[in-house]
Structure formats: structure tokens, C-alpha cells
Amino acid sequence: MQTDNRPLSPHLQIYRLPLTAITSITHRLSGLLLGLGALGMVYWLIALAAGPAAFEGARAAAGSFIGQIVLILFSLALFYHLCNGIRHLFWDAGYGFELDTAHRSGQAVIAAAVVLTIIVWIFAYSMGGA
Amino acid sequence: MSYRTPIKQARGLGSSHFGVAQWWAQRTTALALIPLLIWFVVGLAVHSSAGYGAARAWIASPVAAVLMVLTLGAVFYHGALGVQVVIEDYVDGEGLKLALITLVRFAAIVLALAGIFAVLSIAFGG
Q: Which residue from A130, A31, A72 is spatially nearest to B33, judged by alpha carbons?
């Protein structure tokens, strides 16, 4: 009997991921990215402890064009992971599992992450640039 | 026929024995990190642009130093647990899995202590 020609269930490349699946994998990816952000946090503190020269080096790196893009990505990952983490805490407590609710809380998390990122950068630049 | 289920062989012999405690630690650190990271990001936005002296004065203040140490502890505890879950889900083979988790834990502890030492040296160094 031929067994290698059976119908296959949809693969990830074919199947259109629902929003709940996209927000789930993005939670993981943003968490891993924030691991790198934590490295940056320690680098900043060590530079601050090491003295003015090291700190100015860290500030120049953070203030460069690439540095600013990386920091914006870190802040977006942070606010996404934070908001979606709160969504997960509600799930852990047993609330919000209805498909419609889970879909709408996913939309809310994405919107909140973008809005919070924009607010914090407007605030940072109004304080005199990050 | 026997009605005994294999549960008596499995009881207390879960894959790691630490699952429930780690699950709770992941959530308690998550809860702690909500205010701590909002404080850190806002503080960074306010103080980092004002230069070396202002940033140092911020971290050197007792409240900020304590909050910064708490943040570092919670970040690397939470981060190590999170990366461990990802490794457990995607890495094949017990040996490699264990090696990577051990590596992540060592790295998390070293980085947390390096950060905490930097904060304390700022706070006590004046």
C-alpha cells in the first residue's frame, strides 16, 4: 500500500495564522529580543559605574542612528511583551478564553504597545533626546 | 487483569520536578516587572539625556538603587525561566537541552551580578 501520498494537514507556510497565534509567537520573539535588551541595560549600568568616558561611549552608541532604531525596537518589544504578559496573566487566572475576547484582547495589546512606544519616545525627545 | 494505572510510577517523577515553582516564579517576577520596568524606562528617558552626572545621581539615590537592583534580579530571573521554556520546547536531545539551560542560567546570574555590582559601586562610591 502506498503511504507517502496521503493528504497533509496545512503546514505553517500555507495555513494563515490567526491573530492569537501571531500574538503568541510574537510574545516569545519579543521575550528573546528583551534578553538582548537586558544585556544593554547591564552595559549601560557598567558604563555609568566605570566613569564619564565609558558613559559617553555608551551614550554615543545609543544616540547613533542604528542605536536609536535598536532602542525603539527594544522599547516596542518591551511594551508588547508587558501588555501581552498582562493578557497571559488574565488567562492564567481563567479569564478571556472566548475566541472573540482573545481576538479583541490581541488587537488591544498590539494597539497599546504601539501607543505606549510612541508616547515614551515623544517624552524622551521632549526631555532632550535619548 | 489489573486495574492499576501507571500513575504510581509517574507521581513525583515529572520531567524536572520544578515545574510548579517555576511557573509561579515566572508569574510573580512578571507582576513585579510591570511597575519596575515602567519606572526604569521613564527614568531612563528623563535622566539619561541629561548627561553623566544626572544619570549617576539618579542611580546613586537610595530608592533608585534599590529599585534598580530589584529590576536586575527580576529581569534575569524572569528571562532565564522564559528562555528555558523556549529551549525545552524547540531543542531536541536531553544533553543539548540541559547544556543550553545551564549556560543560560550561568549567563543570567553573571549578568545580574555584574549589573547589581555596578549599581552598588555607584550608590556607595558617591
A: A31
Q: How far apart are the C-alpha atoms of B26 and B36, rounded to whole Å?
A: 15
Q: Complex ipTM, two decimals?
A: 0.88
Nearest residue of chain B to residue A82 (CA atoms): B34
pLDDT score for B12: 63
> Out of A55, A85, A86, whose CB is closest to B52?
A55
Q: How many domains does chain B have?
A: 1
A76 Cα to chain B: minimum distance (Å): 12
- Residue A128 is classified by DSSP as T
Q: How confident is the model at residue B36 (pLDDT cuts 50, 70, 90)?
A: very high
Q: Is A128 in contact with B50 (Cβ distance < 8 A)? A: yes
Give the predicted TM-score (pTM) of the model: 0.88
- The boundaries of the domain holding residue B76 are 21-123
CB atoms A48 and B121 under 8 Å: no
B115–A89 C-beta distance less than 8 A: no
| Residue A108 forms contact with B (CB below 8 Å) | no
- Domains, chain A, with CATH or none: 19-126 (1.20.1300.10)
